[in-house]
Amino acid sequence: MRTVYVNGEYLPENEATVSIFDRGFLFADGVYEVTSVLDGKLIDFPGHATRLQRSLDELEMANPVTAEELLAIHRELVARNDVGDGLVYLQITRGAADRDFAYPADATPTIVLFTQAKPGLADNPVAKTGIKVISIPDRRWGRRDIKTVQLLYPSMGKMAAKAEGADDAWMVEDGAVTEGTSNNAYIVKGNTIVTRHLGEEILHGITRAAVLRLAAEAQMKVEERSFTIEEARAADEAFVTSASTFVMPVVEIDGTPVGQGTPGPVAARLREIYLDESRKTAL
Ligand code: PDD
Fold first, then answer.
1. Does the pTM exceed 0.90?
2. What fold characterizes domain 3-118?
3. Would you say the CB of residue 55 lies under 6 angstroms from ligand 1?
4. What's the Cα-to-Cα distance from 113 to each of 2, 22, 110, 277, rounded to whole Å?
5. What is the helix (H) or strand (E) element at residue 253, kind and residue range?
6. Lower CB count within 10 Å: N or C terminus of the chain?
7. What confidence score (pLDDT) does residue 46 get?
8. Alpha carbon of 184 to ligand 1 centroid (Å)
9. Which numeric CATH code is attached to 126-281?
């Protein structure tokens, strides 16, 4: 049985509880982070901690732990659960209060962390074959730069993809791709990598930031701008990035093969560089 962390305590998962009045439960009034673990070490931890603080600040929510405590809790959970490869999920909500739309003045934030073991995470065989995506309208709220726990529309998107025999969905707004249901979206044309510019329309992916920096260091050309599904279908390559998938090739969009319909060299190279570099800086 896993050991999880809730509000200052390490407990067996079946003994950890949160109030039914928790605003995370009643209003999705909470934020989260997912940090991957390779060889027992945390990947891109400072980036996730920084984005967590930004999400909290945007929602005027208190952070119940310091950055040092947060790192210590992550490490302790990885150690207690003997996680080699996997993920640490972290959620902070505004806490429990009598139900009222206005933020309560005196609620104590709730903090929960748990691990998910994923042996062989970096050697996921899907990276060799790629994933298929469909496009769907982006019907999420407008502050997607805040990593809130309101994930129902992305869940619906994944289900729509599954129903069509695909793996994931890319969301489209005003004719342009925003991002995947739980990842950032990219295309490659010639020697140029294209991914949507930052703004309130997408999550500012931590993996995205690292991959774009590494691509620039490797003298690859990067354009941060909108692109359409038509442009993506005509691209040489496509891929997504996230903490849980790193760099994952996309080989089909709405039934059209991308390039040769097999993972391309740019995605493969970026995956390798990203994994190498992030293992070196893992904590
Ligand atoms: N999802 N865009 C969305 C909508 C996401 O939910 C995520 C991450 C990303 C990629 O961000 P990062 O590189 O920081 O993981 C982009 C996580 C992994 C999840 O919900 O499980």
1. yes
2. D-amino Acid Aminotransferase; Chain A, domain 1 (3.30.470)
3. no
4. 11, 16, 10, 26
5. strand 246-253
6. N
7. 97
8. 7
9. 3.20.10.10
